[in-house]
Amino acid sequence: MEPSATHYYQPLWTLVGAGEVDVAKTARRQSRVMPQGVHWIQDRVEHVEPADRTLTTQTGVVIGYDYLVMCPGIQLDWDEIPGMQSAVGHDGVSSNYGYDLAPKTWQFLSEFRGGTAVFTQPAGPIKCGGAPQKIAYLAADHIRRQGITGARVVFATPADSIFGVPEFAKALEEVIADYGIDVMYGHELREVRPESRQAVFSSGEGSTTIEYDFMHVVPPMSAPDFLKKSALAIPDDAKGWVSVDPGTLQSTDFPEVFALGDASGSPNGKTGAAVRKQAPVVVENLLAVIAGLEPTATYDGYTSCPLVTGYGKMLLAEFDYSMRPHPTIPLIDTTKPRTDMWFLKKYGLPFMYWNLMLRGFG
Q1: Which of 16, 94, 194, 222 has the most CB atoms within 10 Å of its CB?
Q2: Which residues are catalytically annotated?
Q3: pLDDT tens digit string along 93-124?
Q4: Quick check: 135 and 12 in contact, CB under 8 A?
Q5: Angle at the Cα of 127 (from 126 to 128), degrees rounded to 5?
Q6: pLDDT tens-digit readout, 80-95
Q7: What is the pTM of this model?
Q8: Are 181 and 150 spatial neighbours (Cβ–Cβ below 8 Å)?
Q9: Is there a shared CATH topology between the 43-74+224-268 domain and the 76-221 domain?
Q10: Which of the listed CATH numbers 3.90.1200.10, 3.40.190.10, 3.50.50.60, 3.40.640.10 matches domain 76-221?
């Protein structure tokens, strides 16, 4: 079940926002990527009742199931930040978290002639947790290449470090120092005032207001609303993630239900790389449950974050539940920015996605 007529390769939107990729290359008709032999119900789930094993769609159709795999993705909660929804896409404010917005990022960045460029990251899990800082590095590199002097680049994050894995954090801190980016740790965007071009942040010391000339915003994110209202969600979790065993990805309360991807409550990074490793685990365990057996396949929390650090440079952060590096590419050190990793990001990974991952390979 999938309501969308268009399928997007969203990881490239970072490069769209940097003027490196045409946004049209990130979209294909959903019908082109739908597996053969699958009955596609082009409708949206509005309600799930696991006790009755039923789904209710937006058009009012009730569908029963014997087994259910939940992978509905993540919801962008633009309206949680006052002023963000009305500001984004206009007057220097954009976001790479949208097909129509990523080109605006490049438009506003290419028009930037100096002043303050602000980049924000929300609290809580988001898809592609490194994306908010990637565009900050690309913007800083662009400003340097354009010879713009006196510009201030600000990256505001509610976190207390730039990355959760120390080995990668060290490399990124060197990138930040090289560009002279002003990182404001412990700062979360609370309001956008587009009429005065001001961004208001909360912190441990109160609030901070910054006037911006260009701003890239990232909205808070959560599971889709229908999951928040369901018995599948983690109890007392406002975000609504599906409660699963982090290893088997089976629902903790309904053994015929599995969840993977961004809406899953497994404590891994919400990335396409995570889904790639989760999918075979779900398949093996689902088939075991159908056969009346206990699920035994285990997901180790592997994820990867291709961290673009400038034009032509990228490091590949791979790690698992242990929050330690988990490299999968032999012979080369991907913990430092490299040109070959940039080509992997721009060309290799999109090829793998369209031609291998969506076909069930790799």
Answers
A1: 94
A2: 128, 305
A3: 999 999 999 999 999 999 999 999 999 999 99
A4: no
A5: 110
A6: 999 999 999 999 999 9
A7: 0.96
A8: no
A9: yes
A10: 3.50.50.60
